[in-house]
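Lecture 7 notes. Example A: sequence first, then its structure tokens.
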Amino acid sequence: MNQSKTDPRVLRTRKLIMDSFIELSGEKEFKDITVKDITSKALINRATFYYHFEDIYDLLEKVLSEVLLVNLDCDYYQNNGLNEEALVNIFKAITDFQKSLSTRCHRGYEDTIARIIREQLEIIFYKLLLKQRPAEDEHPLKVTAVMLSWGIYGASVEWRRTSKEIPPEEFIKSAIPYILSGSNFGAAD
């Protein structure tokens, strides 16, 4: 029988695998977690694991992406534009996500985490820009989305490295007027 990836049973099994992985990541370092550990905790066989994920790195990437998307509350951005509130909320979600990972993920996976954060931010920023400027050429909007995603991610790394005693909201608020006026998104047409 060929089941669809949207079949509720398939979705439940996928969630069970991801939840088992998240639970295990609280108990041991990522490098020490095996597929056998995950399948034992989830009470599934290896073939079921590999039906859903290519390998443990694919699972890591999918879990991080989903957790980040939950933190970012993407539905909020569907109805709002690129403004101060959106930038503060995005920055806060990124810093919260990074804090939650600091005890779970080994430093060797920071590149994977950084890539996932930047990719998800790029998608959000592109949608926000496209919504505000639907008639414009897509290429400059994509480039702007890339620049914003790298900039927000870089600011979150800087906050984590140097300014943890300052709330993330305060840290980013000082730069927002420059982002909005410099990019002309906050200005009236």
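Example B, a different protein, same format:
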Amino acid sequence: MTRILAVDTSTEACSAALYNDGGLFCEREVAPQGHTRLLLPMIDRLLKSQGLGLGDLDCIAAGRGPGSFTGVRIGVSLAQGLAFGAGKPLVGISDLEVLAFTAFNRTASGKAVAAIDARMGEVYIGVYERDSRGFPSLLGEEQVLSPEKALDYVRELINNEAPAIIGTGFGTYPVLGAALNGIRTDESLPWADSLVRLALRDWELSRARPPEEVLPVYIRDQVTWKKISEQEQERQSRKMKM
């Protein structure tokens, strides 16, 4: 008997899902400014509906980003707090992977491209292929790129296939989906009912971790620090040559 609670607030979507021994229950709402107000009541209702408490869970899962910096922090921090309090492990799932999983469940495509609007003229993007169990397997790396660079990056990975495309990035930049000749799904947000099924996979593969080891993934922040590090290394190299 496996029981997993999952939460996601990384985008304007706010949702919680409970997997209870084969049954899946979810509450969801589009609420860009309402995550902190809505999420705990959602969790409370889900647990009470099944007569469960946090101590009855096997693990807790959270969408770890990328997405809104504030939204990612809210979801991961709340999941960490619940996991610490209940003495449970935590699973962090990429929100791009959540989107790809949704796309695979709604199309027959062997590859999926997930794109989340990153603002500032960029998208968070990930390319996935369907594994033997129907789960997403990441090709390359998750990136934050301009639509033009994202298109070049995706084309290198899909080998002229028509992928499933999903996510708010395609709504913000329709030319991206049109250029890929992608198969559009009827969903654009990552929801906890897909996330909890990926968390179940990771639980079965013993991928759950202590709460403090599951951290938000911003991508843009990582890229910025990488550039700073490279610039510093170049500066030090020039100093040594002088």
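Note on Example B: DSSP finds eight helices and ten strands in the chain. Helices lie at 35-49, 69-86, 95-106, 147-158, 168-172, 174-180, 192-204, 220-241.
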